[in-house]
Amino acid sequence: MSMQKLWYVAVEVVFVIALLVLPIVLSTNDEPIPADKAQLNSWFDRNVGPLASREGSLDPAVVEAEKNVTVVQVRADGSGDFKTITDAIKRPPRQQASRVIISIGPGNYTEKVKIDRYTHFITLYGDPKDMPVMVFDGTAAQFGTLDSGTLSVESDHFSAVNLKFVVCV
Known about the structure:
about 170 residues; alpha/beta
């Protein structure tokens, strides 16, 4: 077995162990997020109310950011506002104070995505019925350990939903 394949197997083992050891994320009222997808909507309705009902329990910066949301479309076929996720992330001004939802259409996005420490309130939102695939075929040998990931986030108040990340071997 080549050293590169051995390294990838080691990384996969670490991820599997992490997934087995850290599977439960808790809401503010300590009700675990259900593993069964069919129960997620009812859990969400019980635990995450409208912004107006949660303002007192949220960071004031988040409350302000959620009042003026911008949605931009990324489509691999070029039919959106942007063709790449990276271009959409470059759109908001540095230190912006409002939420930017980057709606990502189905398809493969082969790019290294970095959200720097000055680009706050970014949400990457994939199509739940046909989740986009993010892939970057760089290795730690090529880019170093810290810069070899498909997605790296240094910013505050980031979230990502309905995305698939693929590791190339």
